[in-house]
Amino acid sequence: MDEKFDCIIVGAGVAGLAAAMTLARNNMKFLLIEKGEFPGSKNVSGGVLWGNDLAKLVPDYWEEDAGWERFINHRRLTFMDDQSTFSVDFKSSHFNDPPYTGVVVLRSKFDRWLAEKVQEAIDASDYAMDSFIAPNVLVEEVLQKDGKTVGIKAGGDEFYSDSVILAEGVNNLLTRQVGLQDTYVPADHMLTGVKEVIRFDQKVLEDRFQLNGLSGMSNEFVGYATNGVEGGGFLYTNRDTISIGLVLGLKDLREKEQTPYDILNEFKKHPVIADTIRGGEVVEYSAHIVSSGDKRVMPEKLYKPGLVVCGEAANLLLNAGKAIQGMDYAMRSGILAAEAITKAKEKVDFGEEAMKSYQTALEDSYIMKDINNFQDAVHLLHDPVMTQKMPNLICDFGRNFFSIKNEPTPKSRNMLRGAIKRHASYWELIKLGAKSAKAL
Amino acid sequence: MKLLSLPERLGLVSYRNQAKSEIKPHILVDTDICNSTCPHKCTTYVCPANCYTKDENGKVHFQVEDCIECGTCMYACDQGAVTWKFPDPEIGRGVTWNFG
Q1: Pairwise CB contact (< 8 Å): B100 & A111
Q2: B66 and chain A: CB distance < 8 Å anywhere?
Q3: What region does A77 belong to: left with phi over 0, alpha with psi -120 to 50, or beta?
């Protein structure tokens, strides 16, 4: 192909689609390449898209009954031992009205829908006939000449552009090829996610989870869920299915010689979870690597002349105990990447400094502010005292506190003392408390 | 509810180019490394699709047909035995998620 694009975007996930939408609106000529059959077809997430950036891309998306599954107005954090669950539960009608603060999505459906919106934006741009979304194409190489990015190679053909946005996801082979990430990334700060989508009669689902209309619930789990491996569990309600799964520290999984799908079955067998999912039918099993949000694994530099990296290809993800954020980071970073490329086009300068403005914008955004501020929380959530001893202690206390025995009842503080003694030491708790106070 | 075995779970996955008998593997594994110097053979238990198995003699074998492109083995293998690529859309295998 002889013609040259302003930009080639690799990957039609959330980051790539957000970048494409922004470029289309800015009247840029671009090519969005996706290796799967259609956008979303190879993408897996938990997944809740947090925040409200979606409304920037698709204004009033809530008026359209498509793309997304349910909005979140019910949050639950559950501590688990082998028999019990002890939850912090928050539900509020405050979250009932758009703009929503989080929507549950299934990527095969959501990304495909968002891509249709991008196509509409392309059709409305000056480059309706010259910008494309190209599925079924695998990019083999980023082309560089005299230190500049000049395009990509796919299926033996070369495609030329002034700039490239890498939005290829966590398994970022091209980011490695251009030298922004090490060729081998060790397991230390990566997690393996496994998930099942379980279908119910919609009425049963709505009654069981107390859903009203399109309201939904997100539930995270710490403790027994992961069978001693660092990590956690999740459960999100979709229209007539739930997404239930685990994220497991890969290094810990390797050291403890455990198997992800066996742990998932143990989780599903837990008496409380078994009651929650009774009568459902598994309709999909999936797995994907996810980064931990630990800065030690992130590529330090996210740009080169004519090239920027966004989304999880840049390992933009954070679980600081409040929510697992990744797709919202992908969306915002994709928008910021496209804005930097648009500016570069205006100034006809795609050099190092022009691309650096993307990373500067990222540093100034909530994404890097939160990632930097909550590094201690990331470490804390991978501390075995937090992931194993605390949940056992809390459930032990709960079991005593809620037992009514027709005999003299000890004071709660004595129950708590007993629970601490059985599962941890005061010293561990003091350290944990001090760390938490600092981290959160 | 009934718990599913891994083969039952993988039976729910839509793979690409399933009708083609000859596919180009997207992952190459140097099992000589697995079977000589590797101290843990971890891919045989961490792979979410059980693409890596041990036979009765403890030897590691790899098959790409069930691979769901998660990436786990690329990070888990610290011995340099795994060369990981994405499957070719025309002549590779890999997944198309129905839900994702």
Answers
A1: yes
A2: no
A3: beta
